[in-house]
From TrEMBL:
<dbReference type="Pfam" id="PF17874">
    <property type="entry name" value="TPR_MalT"/>
</dbReference>
<protein>
    <submittedName>
        <fullName>Helix-turn-helix transcriptional regulator</fullName>
    </submittedName>
</protein>
<dbReference type="InterPro" id="IPR027417">
    <property type="entry name" value="P-loop_NTPase"/>
</dbReference>
<dbReference type="InterPro" id="IPR059106">
    <property type="entry name" value="WHD_MalT"/>
</dbReference>
<keyword id="KW-0238">DNA-binding</keyword>
<dbReference type="GO" id="GO:0003677">
    <property type="term" value="F:DNA binding"/>
</dbReference>
<dbReference type="InterPro" id="IPR016032">
    <property type="entry name" value="Sig_transdc_resp-reg_C-effctor"/>
</dbReference>
<feature type="domain" description="HTH luxR-type">
    <location>
        <begin position="833"/>
        <end position="898"/>
    </location>
</feature>
<dbReference type="Pfam" id="PF00196">
    <property type="entry name" value="GerE"/>
</dbReference>
<dbReference type="GO" id="GO:0006355">
    <property type="term" value="P:regulation of DNA-templated transcription"/>
</dbReference>
<dbReference type="InterPro" id="IPR000792">
    <property type="entry name" value="Tscrpt_reg_LuxR_C"/>
</dbReference>
<dbReference type="InterPro" id="IPR036388">
    <property type="entry name" value="WH-like_DNA-bd_sf"/>
</dbReference>
<dbReference type="InterPro" id="IPR011990">
    <property type="entry name" value="TPR-like_helical_dom_sf"/>
</dbReference>
<dbReference type="Pfam" id="PF25873">
    <property type="entry name" value="WHD_MalT"/>
</dbReference>
<dbReference type="InterPro" id="IPR041617">
    <property type="entry name" value="TPR_MalT"/>
</dbReference>
<keyword id="KW-0804">Transcription</keyword>
<keyword id="KW-0805">Transcription regulation</keyword>
């Protein structure tokens, strides 16, 4: 059956149980019996230092168990989240093709794991063992986290077995408490005296006196690798006495025993074998043809056969007798000896390996060996050849590592593509000086060759850089330049239109932003540009969020996360951040933390742990909401230091300022807030972008309130409102409005405070805002409580029942003791009020208000400049519509239904 990805790109030998050697295998019945109980546990852990026979034990046991088993031998190169799981799926695919067929290569990890677990659930009910061998080579936190998720949801008939030198970063304590883990450690894995004797006497036909056997067992403490090394040395000694001397002299070396005995073994090998071992020491895996290419000989197969038959620290990795590997400890010795004896040979050996891997289309290994050979020009050639498929697969850490190792060793002016790729590395690391330098080099080269397609790509990159810095006008300038190049060549770039849409978004032109984003999305779908499709979804989500349409925004963020797989990781990261921000605003902290955790996992794997400013701001808000105020401020301190160190954008610093000032003032640290703002606020706010200016003004207004200067705060904030309302930026207006209503309250400006508060509530209710109010503390709480209780006995026509219910929920979150309302009764009163409002004419309402002020019919007639008879007619109409018979009854009914304010 055809799988969902090309399994030829995965090394099949890693999925095979390593072969043991019958003449040297010790039947370890006591351990087999222990392993037989693994069927009762989700996890079996074999944890012991190197050389304790973990792999051999598992391999021998699995050959006799009546259950199906999948095997994966791990290597350091598997410290890549998607590579790790692709190999896991491939390993399980050896049991049944459905495991591989259910996975798509571009699936997000969460979906891949879910599909895999669901497929395991549907697998026949017989028990399955899945072995991860040498798990200690995995140090990627994202892999640990994803494996913990996999383990937590493992079906009952599936059992994970991990072989490792160190305890894995999994919830072992929790599993122990629940009785869900079987552990075999070094104390159990050590060879007993009986097993040591069986290994030496029956396996290798070596005779030793009983006291020497005991000395050997005690000296090595049952360490299988040590026994094996000693046994190989003993095979070169003739007679019991000679062997006894060797045992006596070598078993007290302690930590140096491996080095000492390996030297003894090494010195006994034929020169031809030594030469072969040294020349192939650079290889992590051995293939006859690869060995021939590296050594320049044709005896690769013969040498490997000799080593296998001699049981000389070599393992066969497949059933076809093609791929082998040295024992890791033995390989370390070989590499040390090569470095000591012939360091000048290393470059040539690595270069030969690189050439062979290139011909075999194993490009990752080809690049690695080229870099190890210091063949940087060759490495650059190979990287240019294979980079884009890797980039699309989300292998950005690998590409970044290669480029970092190339840096300073090649002339970028001769390689504009490497310069362009380096721009991505520098931009991500916020090394803007280096970014600009590499950018100029690439531009000059492509201008000289008139490569307008790549010049357009450079403009898009510059636009993205400006976007990261929140500079909307620059984004628009660069995208227009990119589109000009594309027009010249009749190219239609979806990315340029998406970036232009984002530029309009940051410039405040939301209508034009939507037009460009939809255009970019349409072209992206037509041309299969995943990057553009993801970007369009992300920024359409941002647009909806700015307009206060949170639910619509979440739909777009979900599209961005779901449809991009691992191809556009950065957009996925941002979509998770944005979703987390909305969950946080809804005060749904559990889901906000979940989104933040996904950001961490993706950032650790794909971006070397780098987290964007918005991701850290989200963490700070979550911490503050959880009443971890010190942690929140520490995060802001760290972020501020990073922003200043890396010369990030003014938007980043302004975002930090808005949150920091709010939190400090909430703690009563007004002096600290004032001092910080005086030092950090730019002198010329008018020279900033609209978003930065608004954030700084918001921070400044808060400080002015703390300084008892509310009139200045009002002036500062009111000046921002016309543009916000014209542009329809509801989210940003709400941030300003929350501070403004508190400034009106400080001024005791009753004429403005109620309309401002009611507008704030009406807009916030539509988006379901919670943290917007909760983070403001006592100031906004008092205003909400006062407004709510003023409606205690009557319905206000200015507020809908849903808004009052919304205020009620906010007060409960503030911890206020408010009694629940009969909202159905409120709804009926609202309907009556609305009906009355619709029935009374504007003139009749005016007459009603004058009556409430105590005016007589004659006074009302004079005020309105009409005949008194006309006033009587209006009064009769009012009585009829309100179903009353007197002035007093009319006023009572009008107050009850909210036609008149209290």
């Amino acid at each position: 059956m055809e799988t969902s990805w090309n399994t030829q790109l995965l090394l099949a030998t890693k999925l095979t149980v390593p072969r043991s050697y019958a003449q040297a295998v010790v039947p370890r019945v006591r351990l087999y019996q222990r392993l037989a109980t693994a069927i009762h546990y989700p996890l079996t852990l074999l944890a012991a230092p190197a050389g304790f026979g973990k792999t051999t034990l598992l391999g021998e046991w699995l050959r006799d168990v009546p259950h199906v088993a999948a095997w994966l031998s791990l290597e350091r190169s598997d410290n890549d989240l998607m590579r790790f799981w692709h190999y896991c799926v491939a390993a399980l695919g050896t049991l049944h093709p459905e495991f591989a067929a259910c996975i798509q290569p571009t699936q997000p990890l969460e979906e891949m794991l879910t599909a895999l677990i669901n497929t395991l659930v549907s697998y026949p009910t017989e028990d399955i063992f899945f072995v991860l061998d040498d798990y200690h080579v995995i140090d990627d936190p994202a892999i640990h986290e994803s494996l913990a998720f996999f383990l937590a949801h493992l079906p009952a008939h599936c059992h994970l077995i991990i072989s490792t030198r160190v305890d894995p970063a999994l919830p072992l304590a929790r599993l122990r408490v629940r009785g869900q883990i079987l552990e075999l450690r070094s104390t159990e894995l050590r060879f007993t005296l009986e097993e040591t004797e069986h290994y030496l006497v029956q396996g290798l036909q070596l005779s030793l006196e009983s006291e020497n056997m005991l000395s050997l067992q005690q000296g090595t403490e049952g360490w299988a690798a040590g026994l094996r090394l000693i046994a190989h040395a003993l095979q070169g000694e003739i007679g019991i006495e000679a062997r006894a001397r060797l045992v006596t002299s070598s078993t007290h070396v302690n930590r140096d025993i491996l080095h000492y005995l390996t030297e003894e073994v090494w010195m006994t090998l034929p020169a031809e074998i030594q030469e072969f071992l040294l020349e192939t020491a650079i290889l992590t895996r051995l293939h006859p043809a690869l060995c021939d290419a590296v050594t320049g000989q044709t005896h690769g197969q013969r040498m490997l056969d000799w080593l296998e038959h001699a049981n000389l620290f070599i393992s066969l990795l497949d059933e076809q007798n093609c791929w082998y590997r040295y024992h890791p400890l033995f390989a370390d010795l070989l590499r040390q000896r090569l470095l000591l004896c012939s360091p000048e040979r290393l470059p040539e050996l690595h270069l030969r390996a690189s050439c062979w891997y290139e011909q075999a289309q194993m490009m990752n290994e080809a690049v690695e060996h080229a870099l190890a050979a210091d063949a940087f020009e060759r490495a650059a050639d190979l990287i240019e050849y294979c980079v884009w498929p890797l980039w699309i697969q989300g292998k950005t850490p690998l590409v970044f590592d290669w480029l970092a190792r190339l840096h300073g060793h090649i002339t970028l002016a001769a390689r504009p593509m490497i310069a362009y790729l380096s721009c991505l590395v520098f931009l991500h690391a916020a090394q803007f000086a280096e970014y600009q330098q590499a950018l100029c080099i690439a531009r000059e080269c492509w201008q000289e060759t008139q490569n307008v397609e790549m010049l357009s790509c450079l403009c898009e990159l510059q636009a993205y850089c400006a976007l990261c810095q929140g500079d909307g006008p620059k984004v628009l300038a660069y995208t227009q330049e990119a589109l000009a190049f594309q027009q010249h060549k009749s190219l239609a770039s979806a990315c340029s239109h998406v970036l232009q849409g984002a530029g309009y978004l940051y410039s405040g032109d939301l209508q034009q932003a939507r037009v460009e984003l939809l255009l970019g999305q349409r072209i992206g779908i037509q041309t299969h540009r995943v990057l553009a499709i993801a970007g369009a979804a992300l920024y359409q989500g941002d647009l909806c969020a700015l307009q206060g349409q949170f639910h619509e925004a979440m739909s777009f963020y979900s599209q961005c996360i779901t449809n991009t797989g691992n191809c556009v990781i950065w957009f996925r990261v941002l979509a998770h951040v944005r979703a987390g921000q909305i969950y946080c605003e809804w005060n749904d902290l559990s889901h906000a933390r979940e989104q933040s955790a996904r950001v961490t996992m993706l950032s650790e794997h794909f971006w070397h742990g780098h987290r964007s400013t918005v991701a850290t701001l989200l963490e700070a808000r979550i911490a503050w909401a959880a009443d971890k105020q010190d942690e929140a401020l520490d995060l802001l301190d760290q972020l501020e230091a990073e922003v200043q160190r890396s010369e990030k954008s003014q938007l980043d610093l302004a975002s930090i300022a808005a949150l920091r000032i709010k939190y400090w003032l909430a703690q009563g640290k007004s002096a600290q807030a004032q001092d910080w703002l005086a030092r950090m606020q730019p002198a010329d706010l008018d020279g900033l972008g609209i978003r930065e200016r608004e954030l700084w003004c918001q921070a400044r207004a808060r400080v002015l309130l703390a300084q008892h200067q509310p009139e200045l705060a009002v002036q500062l904030l009111v000046a921002l409102l016309p543009a916000l309302r014209t542009q329809g930026r509801v989210f940003d207006e709400l941030q300003i409005q929350t501070v403004l209503v508190q400034a009106y309250a400080a001024l005791e400006d009753s004429r403005h405070i109620r309309p401002a508060l009611e507008r704030l509530l009406t807009m916030a209710e539509a988006g379901g805002y919670r943290r917007l109010f909760l983070e403001e503390g006592q100031g906004i709480k008092s205003l909400l409580s006062d407004l709510y209780h003023r409606q205690q006995k009557r319905y206000s026509g200015d507020l809908q029942p849903s808004t009052l219910k919304y205020i009620h929920s906010l007060l409960l979150m503030f911890g206020c003791n408010v009694e629940p309302r009969d909202w159905q009764s409120w709804q009926k009163r609202a309907q009556r009020a609305q009906a009355s409002l619709e029935q009374l004419s504007e003139r009749e309402l005016e007459v009603l208000k004058l009556i409430a002020e105590g005016n007589s019919n004659q006074q009302i007639a004079c005020t309105l400049v009409v005949a008194e008879s006309t006033i009587k007619t209006h009064l009769n109409n009012i009585y009829s519509k309100l179903n009353v018979n007197s002035r007093l009854q009319a006023l009572t009914r009008a107050h009850a239904v909210g036609l008149l304010s209290p």
